Amino acid sequence: MPSLADTTRGRILFGGDYNPEQWPEETWAEDVRLMREAGVTTATVGVFSWARLEPVPGAREFGWLRRVLDLLHEGGIEVCLATPTASPPPWLGELHPGTLPVTAEGTRLHWGSRNQWCPSSADYRRHALALVEDLAAAFGRHPAVRMWHVNNEYGPVCHCEETAGRFRDWLRKRHGGLDALNEAWGTAFWSQQHSSWSTVGPPLAAPYLPNPAQVLDFRRFCSDVLLECFTAERDVLRRHSPDLPVTTNFMTLYPHVDCWAFAAEQDVVSLDAYPDPADPRAAVRAALGQDMTRSQAGGPWVQMEMAASAVNWRGVNRAKPVERLRLEALQAVARGADGLCFFQWRASRQGAEKFHSALLPHAGTDTPQHRAVRALGRELPLLAEVVGTEVHAEVAVVFDWPNWWALEQRGRPSDRVDLAPLALAWHGALWDAHLTADYVHPEADLTRYRLVVVPNLYLASDRAVENLVAHARRGGTLVAGFFTGVADDQDTIRPGGMDGRLRDLLGVHPLEWRPLDAPADLAGGGTADLWSEELRLAEGTEMIASFADGMPAATRHGRAHYLATLPEPAVLRRLLAGAADAAGVHPELPGLPDGVEAVRRGGLLFVLNHTAAPVHLPLSGPHRNLLTARDTAALQLAPHGAAVLRPM
Amino acid sequence: MPSLADTTRGRILFGGDYNPEQWPEETWAEDVRLMREAGVTTATVGVFSWARLEPVPGAREFGWLRRVLDLLHEGGIEVCLATPTASPPPWLGELHPGTLPVTAEGTRLHWGSRNQWCPSSADYRRHALALVEDLAAAFGRHPAVRMWHVNNEYGPVCHCEETAGRFRDWLRKRHGGLDALNEAWGTAFWSQQHSSWSTVGPPLAAPYLPNPAQVLDFRRFCSDVLLECFTAERDVLRRHSPDLPVTTNFMTLYPHVDCWAFAAEQDVVSLDAYPDPADPRAAVRAALGQDMTRSQAGGPWVQMEMAASAVNWRGVNRAKPVERLRLEALQAVARGADGLCFFQWRASRQGAEKFHSALLPHAGTDTPQHRAVRALGRELPLLAEVVGTEVHAEVAVVFDWPNWWALEQRGRPSDRVDLAPLALAWHGALWDAHLTADYVHPEADLTRYRLVVVPNLYLASDRAVENLVAHARRGGTLVAGFFTGVADDQDTIRPGGMDGRLRDLLGVHPLEWRPLDAPADLAGGGTADLWSEELRLAEGTEMIASFADGMPAATRHGRAHYLATLPEPAVLRRLLAGAADAAGVHPELPGLPDGVEAVRRGGLLFVLNHTAAPVHLPLSGPHRNLLTARDTAALQLAPHGAAVLRPM
Amino acid sequence: MPSLADTTRGRILFGGDYNPEQWPEETWAEDVRLMREAGVTTATVGVFSWARLEPVPGAREFGWLRRVLDLLHEGGIEVCLATPTASPPPWLGELHPGTLPVTAEGTRLHWGSRNQWCPSSADYRRHALALVEDLAAAFGRHPAVRMWHVNNEYGPVCHCEETAGRFRDWLRKRHGGLDALNEAWGTAFWSQQHSSWSTVGPPLAAPYLPNPAQVLDFRRFCSDVLLECFTAERDVLRRHSPDLPVTTNFMTLYPHVDCWAFAAEQDVVSLDAYPDPADPRAAVRAALGQDMTRSQAGGPWVQMEMAASAVNWRGVNRAKPVERLRLEALQAVARGADGLCFFQWRASRQGAEKFHSALLPHAGTDTPQHRAVRALGRELPLLAEVVGTEVHAEVAVVFDWPNWWALEQRGRPSDRVDLAPLALAWHGALWDAHLTADYVHPEADLTRYRLVVVPNLYLASDRAVENLVAHARRGGTLVAGFFTGVADDQDTIRPGGMDGRLRDLLGVHPLEWRPLDAPADLAGGGTADLWSEELRLAEGTEMIASFADGMPAATRHGRAHYLATLPEPAVLRRLLAGAADAAGVHPELPGLPDGVEAVRRGGLLFVLNHTAAPVHLPLSGPHRNLLTARDTAALQLAPHGAAVLRPM
Q: Taking every annotated instance into account, which residue ranges of this chain make up the domain Beta-galactosidase trimerisation (chains A, B, C) (predicted)?
């Protein structure tokens, strides 16, 4: 199988989306020249080119693309070539209305934006694959092309009849017969029993709360059917260019697809990440996305999209200070990225994203923004030795999509409990404690980790439960968050309200969930929010934090910790740092100030100062700072500065 | 006619919804054993069993239900048997799409939840009644069955063509010809005149504000058509089991149906009530629901559903402290309940309500929650002598559904003025003043009440107006809230902006409505909110409260009081207590502290301490406390404690 | 062409909408009598009378209307006769469902409210014009009728197939061929290229952000197609009564139609204005609407609707103090109104607007509200000499609808930046500085203005840019707000991110937009909000205000000012007053206190005290106050008082 290394070949890829179809051909030569001046190595081409490549059904207008690829190749710019299947041309929807997605309320969504395709539509798939086939045949061996980029941020959902048919097939495979389906969905509740497959389908608009197991299975199906679309394209591409790695781009904490399942089918795992410059914890969110993507990739990965400055889809789109651009780039490399690509090369003058920043902004090259881009293009080659190396992490964080889909349904104890903020809170506590973490699927091999943390695993399969128990039995430390182990993989509440094996492991029995609607005081200072529980502690279970009224907030049973609430950041950090310390897991550098990030990758130590204060810290020995090419025995960082240190 | 007494037979019913179809048959025996241990007398069975009873069209699978009823009967548990017509099986919607309700925007709502039926659908009714017929024939004389429970929380609304047809029939009956309809709806406004019955129908999605009289009539129709569904089922049941009383369950302040009209057709009136444990005024809301249900029943009633602890349909679902569970149960008995049933017996492991608490929680019997349930099961029989007795009340509160439907439309003076919070504010003031109130329909006989209060009666029929005038003429005291008597029963503004008879009675003429968008100061302290009016006072009308700027806030004209605003709780309490006192209406006990509730029912005085402080109060003579079986000359209540006193 | 002067004939029109069809015929005579007593000159009749005039298709029931007009004429009340085409009868929607508008989601909107018509529907137009034809024939020469009022507040939007067809025709005219359309819409972005006209249509519900140029063109089309409806009716009316002026009523800051284009087709321009009595800046909003309407009219105009007190369509509808009613009326006259009409004469007892105040309120004539109406009716004739005269203004404010439609789309830098609040902020600053302004289309003749201000002109056509440049070249002063000159008239970003000619003129180049999500401090005190920019200043550009961090907030380059943010009111007032002063533009009176408005119209000076304090100010010479008929050498105003001064 081809891999990212076949594309990087010792360089950190640098570049971004390039949409030449938006520009007159005379601009292309200027683009190539400016890319070279900016140190760009790689352009992602063709993500939204379907209508240009196939302006009428069956047409193939590939000449312009060939000219673009030739020009880029002549200029020394490599290409990540995209299949344009994320945005069909208007004619497809007109010719086959069934390719247009339908909402749960029955509204058919139209062209005029993007993403207007039903993943179950045979018509869509046929047209998409025919074009991919011809694209691959035409360009799969073009010397500029070094990677395939399939579709874009997979996510469309449809509720049409054709979707219902595929969903039924999927359900037959998962559950077997109708009786098993009724059992798995608990249709005895509210008289929802199906006596025929013909009444089984996606959850449609209904008078009241939907069946949660149906919703859960539909979300599983939606992810699987998108994965089918991906693998179908991938297989075509592989036939034509077996040596080119294939990727598709994820987003941070993206709920639509199970990224574990997708990653398993990709040669390269890549991420689109847009931390909000207005978010004081943007670095935590970025780190989480990077750590999760690296974990899914099982090694180096590609930042496929990021923003040079502002995006255009938030309410208020803050510009990104230029020093943050560099820090974010180095942070991605530190956490395993071997490629840094931006959306997009040249700011669009038209269309829905014309206010999205770009490597080449509207105001042109003579701007602080573009100068920062060029500086980054000069700096990245200094770090070339990091390419292909591993990031050092002894902590694993459990994260799971079906759990997410089950947890955040309607009709649950508290709609204040969402998985993404929980995951961010836990990741932030680890980040604050200067601990680097991998992410793991709940059923994944945990043997290489001393400490496993589970922010939440409401839905825990039997194998997941046994996996955690085995980790503890091996002497591993476990910290589990509240409302974990409550349901099995069909979202059926486990007897007793929490899996018995986990109750034994953690030494607790939650007798009643008591969600909080505001922060509550903890004994000894600090607060906790979101949740509390009436908890029965087993013998030998120690209460390590409690609410002001005496209710347990955190417990320890041997090496197994349970958090019955979400403590405020400082308290959560202390609890996790304590568990890590006891498990023998320590920061990469002692004495790091708050807001200074240190990550070890390969033989290098990346230290990033996210604060506005300078940092001075003695090192244990002499190091070379690759960014300055100077040797030093101390860490010296300017405000928002960075160092990449190699021990000498 | 059978009545509740035929079912209670001297006991307070205790139990709840029991859904054996959600459990394997081996669980049933355990359920019966645990019910007995918990003191359960009554199980409501079959509320959502349609799909299990009729898995395919026309099938009759009654065997399992017979086994359940037999088992319960052997265990000494009586059954309130439900018709399962609130949630049709999926096959009904597939076979007859016209049974599925349609929103005003034209979206058809599907199965997969519950309540997916159009009350006007002949297909729905035919299938529902056929099943009810067979159920009644099969189980109407089963020895376990002691009451019928029809459907569940009637409320579905539909906007389909079949609904339009029935609505036209209803309108023809109400208004006669098309000219009268046009007149009643004021269709001269905005060119809405109908020249043919075919254009008359439910209010559908429209560009701007709908016709308010059309909306009002449609809501009346929706209530009536649901009542038709109820009486059709009731009549079938009566044919088969003339000795069993029939009920359907209301909810507190439930806007969908006119509960006065429904109550008139029921043998037993019952209530589902879920005060929010997070609401500091939950006891007021509970009392209001209980008083209204008792008034609709004209005597004892049944609490058909309540929660042992948290529900699952709020944003944050707070658990209920165990002492509150007992207080709420005793409060219901004090205010007339002869039955206390919970949703549900055993917590569901699947489905949309698996996080709703139950008598038997997920965590099992060895929990504080279940122990509190058992304690209640032991305590209720101590109060058996209260069964069948009346509650003592000399105050009547006027409440009316058409008024509600007219008041809360779009395009009115203030969308901050809603009837439910107004009703709660007035009920809270009476509760704070330790006064027990009945509820009355505005046209009901008022002769037994010294004091009649009208939180709001924006829409007042001529008979309602005359009823209030007659009450005053008889020497009764009246306290009327703002924006009362404004419209007639077709929501036509009365000449002068307020009915002339009421203007004479109250001695006021509101010249202009001046809604408030924030509380305003009253002269002499306190605030008022929601409303003010430019008011002309007739000669002899006294201003008893005013705003800081001198505008009248409350007036008195003889025994007729008018409140031109909503005073803050303490002020409203003072005003109502003053009017009551002058009318000779006093609390059941003198000197009661705030938050302590005293209600006289039959020969017993229930005293409930809703505060966290102990209460000590001398009594006028020796009493026996039924809960402790001790005699005492003083009231001694622990925090959240209760006493049920019989004078000796 | 007939003009407003043909209707006013030396009088200020006074009256309002009169809907006799809502009342029994016996009320009509009382209405005429009470109108006379109130000084009413003019009644607008028939705005919503379609169903009464044509109760079934093709019928003509004109008798009642003739009787009404005769009665009014006999009573000396003149009539502004309306075409009733804003609210078709129910039968039209039933007969031709295609006349009912369809939302972007595909929901068809029904009758039962008003406005349920598709402007593109040939069926609608045919029925509407046939009725207008017959109305004009029947009443175009009735002696009571002095003006035509077409339709009402044009605004309906539809997304149906017939609309799509007309939209395509419109696009062909605007853009020519499909290639030009694709170019203009930037369909290369996101693969939106149309290869056939059949896929071109209105923006329908889609999965993500729509094409902004498509949205912009659709809004242009919607305005144009409504204008087609207007001119079609107007042409019919002109044929029958060439001497009667024709109007239709706008609303303040109404986004649906381009009022410049509409005004050009009207004989009389008129305005419906409903400033919120709860808004402390209501006088500014009123002034803006009046100034804009006057500018569109190019002279005197008519206030076609205003409220005597509360409206009924806000959340909380505040009553209007009677002194405000008079001030608002005089303000309209001061700013060019030659007619003051109210919605409506007599408060409706039924329908969706029965809580809207009226000249004759529900509570009748013996009310402060009606007494204030009569006082106004007595006062207006004192000002008759102002009729037909011009308002004195040396400042022009640029305002443009396509800019509005382009600016407020999804996916832009900040959704906090809306044009209406921006326009109000700038108008408020001018008002605070006691400067009277006209409004101008960006391509209009600017030669008569010393100072031109541009709150925002994000979308600026080449002609608009050249117009502003020419103004400056002539020595005029310009003050331009942030984010101006960014896009061309197809919403394509101009090279460099701001038009080069404007960059040269203003001496600035915005390098990056940095929208604010909260107010930021300015150096030297005060704050600014909404926006900031990284700005490069050309040589000779002076920074006249800056943020606390040194970033430019306002600059001056010769006489061209640029505001890179929205300063708080006091700062914006100071900046604009400074620019005005330097340009030789001064208030009508020196030394005016805050909140006192002085406007010169014809030979009269209107001075309005919007504060609760009395005003005393010496005048430069003796004046006669027309309101008191007294001579004075000083301005003396009671709280909320007014004076209309003629120099002697």
A: 393-585
- Model confidence at A1, pLDDT cuts 50, 70, 90, reads confident
> For residue A451, how many C-alpha atoms fall within 13 Å in the half-sphere facing its CB?
24
| CB spacing of B208 vs C113 below 8 angstroms | yes
pLDDT in tens, B562-595: 999 999 999 999 999 999 999 999 999 999 999 9
Q: For chain A, which chains pass the contact test of at least 3 CB pairs under 8 Å?
A: B, C
pLDDT in tens, B594-644: 999 999 999 999 999 999 999 999 998 999 999 999 999 999 999 999 999
Structure tokens at C108: 């068809």
Helices C161-175 and C212-240, axial angle in degrees (round to 10) = 100
The alpha-carbon gap from C356 to the nearest alpha carbon of chain A, in Å, equals 35
Superfamily name with CATH number, domain B41-268 = Glycosidases (3.20.20.80)
Average pLDDT over residues A169-173: 98
Catalytic residues of A: 153, 305
Tokens representing residue B115 in the block: 């309540």
Say if residue C1's pLDDT is above 90.
no
C512 contact residues in A (CB cutoff 8 A) = 309-310, 319, 357, 361, 363, 367-369
The structure tokens listed for C434 are: 């006691």
CATH of domain C596-647: 2.60.40.1180
What is the predicted pLDDT for the residue at C316? 98
Please name the residue that has the structure tokens 């122990």.
B371
Domain C395-583: homologous superfamily in CATH? Class I glutamine amidotransferase (GATase) domain (3.40.50.880)
Closest by Cα among C431, C429, C425, C451 to C440: C451
For A21, which residue in chain C has the nearest alpha carbon?
C188
Q: What confidence score (pLDDT) does residue B1 get?
A: 86
Provide the mean pLDDT of chain C: 98
The structure tokens listed for C150 are: 């077409």
Q: Which residues of B touch C19 (CB under 8 A)?
A: 188-189
Neighbours of B328 (CB within 10 A): 24
Of A387, A494, A572, give the one whose Cα is nearest residue A12.
A387
Using one digit for the tens of pLDDT, what is the confidence trace for C210-244?
999 999 999 999 999 999 999 999 999 999 999 99
On the question of pLDDT at C418 being above 90, the answer is yes
Contact A186 B351 (CB under 8 A): yes
Tell me the nearest-neighbour CA distance from C70 into chain B, angstroms: 21
Residue B44 has pLDDT above 90, yes or no: yes
pLDDT > 90? residue B378: yes
Q: Where in chain A is the domain with CATH 2.60.40.1180?
A: 596-647
Query: Distance between CA atoms of B112 and B103, rounded to whole angstroms?
Result: 17
Chain C residues near residue B196 by CB distance under 8 angstroms: 56, 91, 94
Nearest to A496 among B51, B113, B364 (CB): B364
Pick from A110, A344, A346 the residue to mutate for testing the C interface (most C CBs within 10 Å): A110
How far apart CA A68 and CA B311 sit, in angstroms, is: 61
Average confidence (pLDDT) over A454-475 = 98
For CATH 3.40.50.880, the residue range(s) in chain B are 395-583
SS3 label, residue A481: strand
Residues C520-535: pLDDT tens digits? 999 999 999 999 999 9
In DSSP notation, B524-566 reads: TS-EEES--EEEEEPTT-EEEEEBTTS-EEEEEETTEEEESSE
Residues of chain B with CATH 3.20.20.80: 41-268
Measured between beta carbons, which residues in chain A are less than 8 angstroms from residue C203? 112
Give how far C281 is from chain A: nearest CA, Å.
26
**Residue B94 is nearest to which of A187, A199, A511, comparing CB atoms?**
A199
H/E run at residue B82: strand B78-82
Contact predicate A217/A119, CB 8 Å: no
